[in-house]
Structure formats: C-alpha cells, structure tokens
Amino acid sequence: MVLGLILPTAGEVDVLGEPVFGDGARARASRALRKVGAIIEEPAFWRYLSGRRNLEFFARAAGPAADRDRRLARIDDVLRLVGLEAAAGKKVKAYSQGMRQRLGIALALLGQPELLVLDEPTNGLDPQGMREVRLLLRRLADEGTTVFVSSHLLAEVEAMCDRVGVLARGRLVAEGPPSKLRASSDRIRLEVDDRARAVTLLSSFPGVTQDANEVLTGGPGSVWVRLEPPATAASVNAALVGGGVSVSALVPEHESLEDVFVSLVEGADVPR
Q: Contact 133/231 with Cβ under 8 angstroms?
C-alpha cells in the first residue's frame, strides 16, 4: 500500500506528506514515490549479467530523463556504499545470497531516497550475511536515510531498529523503542557459592518468591527469584552477603522482543 502496489480496503496512506490514494493524488504520489526506494523480500536480477549491468538496466527502466541520468551517475556510489565495488563486474549467479541482498539495497538506493522500505531484508541469510545487511542498514540510518523494515525475524528487528511497531491483523497494537517495549522483569538470577544456604535465607525474606521447583543442593549455582515490594535487588544482595553467601552475579531478566510480540498478539481482544 505504501508503494501504491495494492489498494487499501479503508483508510488513508501518506508517504512523505503526500497521499498515495484518492482523488487527484496520483501526481503528488508519483513525486513522493520517486523519493522512496524499496525491495520486496529477495530482489530479482538477471543472473547472467554483472551486478553493475543489472543496476544500469534498472536505472534506465523508468522515470523522467533527469532521474535516469541521476541514477546512472550514482551506480559507483551505491556499489561502494553496500560493499560490492570489487564484485561489480562479476555475474550475479556468482554472488552469495548476502551479496544479492546488498545488490538489492544498492538498487533501492539508486534514486537517493529519503525513505527506504525493505521487506525481510535478512530473510534466508546465514549469520554473516545477516550481520552485513544489519550493519549496512544501521549505517544508512545513521547517515540520515529513514529505513522502514518489515520482518518476522524479531531478533534481527531488535538488533537493528530504533523504533518497533507490532501489527496484528492490520492493527497497530504497540509502538516504541525496543527498550521500552521490553519492560524490565521483576525476575532476577543470582549466582551464588552456596545454593542451599541462599534458598534458605531467601525463603523468609519479605517480597521474595522463589521457583517452586528450586532444588536445594549445596555448592555454587544459580537461584531465580521474583521480587515484590519491599524487596529490591540491592536488599536481597545485602541479605545474602550478610548471611555468609557470596554473590558473584545478580542479573535482572528482560523479556525478549519475541516475548513481547507473542503476549500482544495472543491477547483475547487481538485476532490472530
């Protein structure tokens, strides 16, 4: 819908302040969309042509003559930006999937867009390819390009995005920085030198709830507890140390973005 490829059933879509649909919107939308670059999942290229030749053909494909000339003049710049300058003369069939994804991003950047819309930019990549694309998108965002990513790989979203929106059946059910969506948990993990003594001390500490399945074994190990007022991490640590238990680590446990997503879309009032 943002790219004007499908029609909305209801509502409005604005891109860079211009309506994409509606009476008289076509000319203004066309101007706005010339400032948008996009790829949908894995970009398609002529595999028997080099990366550079592919970009040349796409640069000449459409748009006013001035825009075509501008895109052609940017080919070297975008190849350098995505780290494909040395591989520009190789045929695309010799590219790894990570290289093809970066070539797709180079294609989306030809028009020097203000807005970059990417659908599953790390889909199907190995860890190294994911890292390459993630670092590239982070650099583009730091240099002023707005990057809009749609993805179900929530660990990647958490690693690369400044703001996250959670959609369920077309409804925006949450939005904000990942750190805000992942509220701190009241659960903490303690690494101690004597688990049995630590569990005994904490059993009578006000506001501390322990895992019912906690095994009372001696020696070093982990203890998980939940805190409610008046208990705090600092007071629990002080009580254990005062009782002769050495605490080597006290780690608050945070929800992952995946935990947040599941809790939001599994809500009774949110259809799945």
A: no
**42-55 burial code (b ≥16 CB/10 A, e <16):** bbebeeeebbbbbb
User: Residues 174, 180: contact at Cβ < 8 Å?
Assistant: no
Specify the number of domains making up the chain.
Answer: 2
| Distance in angstroms (rounded) separating the CA atoms of residues 209 and 98 | 47
Asked if the structure places residue 216 within a domain, the reply is yes
Please answer whether residues 107 and 39 qualify as being in contact, where contact means their C-beta atoms are separated by less than 8 angstroms.
Answer: yes
Q: Are residues 104 and 222 in the same domain?
A: no
Are 157 and 46 part of one and the same domain?
yes
Kindly report the number of other CB atoms within 10 A of residue 163's CB atom: 11
Could you say which DSSP state residue 44 is in? Answer: P
- Asked whether residue 221 is assigned to any structural domain, the reply reads yes
Other CB atoms within 10 A of residue 240 CB: 23
Residue 110 contacts residue 33 (beta carbons within 8 Å): no
Q: CATH number, domain at 140?
A: 3.40.50.300
- Predicted TM-score (pTM) of the model is 0.69
3 state DSSP class of 248:
strand
Low-confidence ranges of the chain (pLDDT < 70): 182-186, 211-219, 255, 267-272
Judge contact between 198 and 245, C-beta under 8 A. yes
Tell me the one-letter amino acid at 177.
P
- Asked if 101 and 146 sit in the same domain, the reply is yes
Residue 78 CB: number of other CB atoms within 10 A?
24
Residue 224: domain span: 184-254
Q: Is residue 8 part of a domain?
A: no
Can you give the pLDDT at residue 212? 59
- Dihedral, CA of residue 91, residue 95, residue 101 and residue 106, to nearest 10: -40
Please check whether residue 63 lies inside any domain of the structure: yes
